[in-house]
User: Which sequence fits this backbone?
């Protein structure tokens, strides 16, 4: 077994997630994946997707959870705190700074339309991110089916997530368990 | 409400949302809107949407809107209280569960849970994306922005910030609606 993971220090965790937070425009999912998998090699792509699955499953911001889980995995509670504070501190300062500026100009028509267009582009970015995350599912009919049913239940039927998620997760995990020989293919 | 009362209210609202945020930050936006606008009346509906858009413009997790709401409602203390409240409960839960998750790295049931959760994750992110689209595609101009920027995000090597900045600049210069 070759060493594919590099074990970060507490300071590495703070700095890594600080950069993810500050650079993560339009959401930090893409930038955290880039940092953790591609730039620093802390996790493989498969491990990252698996850990993201856990962090989606648990309540809370996905990448906030990811920073806590990853920090704790390598450096215990100090690592978790360093990663989470690293992730949050820059963006909190920036967003409050933007809030102060925005308050002064929010009624200017050009600012109103700039925000409308910016939000629309951010929506497109999220769609692009969703499509990239879905890439490992291509060709796996069961996985695609579960993803489509999840989408319909949440986005179309508008079920409360607190009811829908346990049901969907239980069914999907049960199917994965029953069909696990095929899953290895 | 007195300032300490407001801070306590922020802590309770966002602490509760922290544990309700299944599927990540975007899943609690409607509930956040209900609590902040309808129940507590801290912000108007239009103001809430504006702050949400502003938080999208800033870097960081999707839940940055929480810090902004806290700041708008009760200043710097409000921002800190709201941010900590939305982070702490879920983080403690992650700490408790992720240790188990790694201890059973090679257990068959863990692999089944992971394999089963993955497509659910994909569906939830797709659902989040559709919520974003519904929120923003309100006129032909913004629909055009989405139609042009989506392939740019998918098929070009441009940094997302460049595309987002271009959209904002276009809106500022020649935007309608």
Assistant:
């Amino acid at each position: 077994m070759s060493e594919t993971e590099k074990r970060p220090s507490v300071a590495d965790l703070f700095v890594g997630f600080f950069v993810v937070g500050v650079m993560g425009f339009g959401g930090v999912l893409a930038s955290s994946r880039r940092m953790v998998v591609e730039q620093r090699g802390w996790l493989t792509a498969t491990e990252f997707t698996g850990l993201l699955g856990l962090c989606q499953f648990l309540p809370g911001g996905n990448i906030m959870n990811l920073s806590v889980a990853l920090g704790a995995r390598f450096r215990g509670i100090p690592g978790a705190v360093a990663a989470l504070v690293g992730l949050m501190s820059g963006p909190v300062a920036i967003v409050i700074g933007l809030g102060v500026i925005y308050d002064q100009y929010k009624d200017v028509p050009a600012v109103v339309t700039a925000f409308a267009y910016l939000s629309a582009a951010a929506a497109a970015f999220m769609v692009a991110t969703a499509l990239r995350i879905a890439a490992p599912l291509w060709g796996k009919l069961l996985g695609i089916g579960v993803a489509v049913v999840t989408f319909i239940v949440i986005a179309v039927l508008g079920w409360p997530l607190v009811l829908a998620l346990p049901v969907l997760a239980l069914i999907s995990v049960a199917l994965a368990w029953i069909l696990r020989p095929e899953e290895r293919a | 409400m007195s300032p300490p009362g407001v801070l306590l209210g922020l802590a309770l609202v966002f602490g509760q949302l922290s544990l309700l945020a299944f599927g990540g930050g975007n899943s609690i936006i409607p509930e956040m809107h209900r609590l902040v606008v309808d129940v507590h009346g801290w912000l108007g509906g239009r103001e809430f949407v504006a702050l949400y858009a502003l938080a999208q413009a800033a870097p960081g997790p999707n839940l940055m809107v929480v810090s902004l709401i806290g700041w708008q409602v009760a200043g710097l203390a409000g921002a800190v209280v709201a941010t900590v409240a939305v982070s702490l409960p879920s983080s403690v839960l992650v700490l408790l569960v992720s240790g188990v998750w790694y201890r059973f790295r090679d257990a068959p049931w863990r692999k089944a849970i992971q394999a089963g959760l993955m497509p659910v994750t994909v569906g939830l992110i797709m659902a989040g994306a559709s919520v974003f689209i519904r929120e923003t595609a309100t006129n032909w101009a913004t629909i055009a922005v989405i139609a042009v920027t989506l392939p740019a995000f998918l098929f070009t090597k441009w940094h997302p910030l460049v595309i987002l900045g271009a959209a904002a600049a276009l809106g500022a210069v020649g935007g309608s609606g």
Observations:
- Chain B touches chain A through 97 residues (CB under 8 Å).
- The radius of gyration of chain B is 19 Å.
- Chain B has a mean pLDDT of 83.
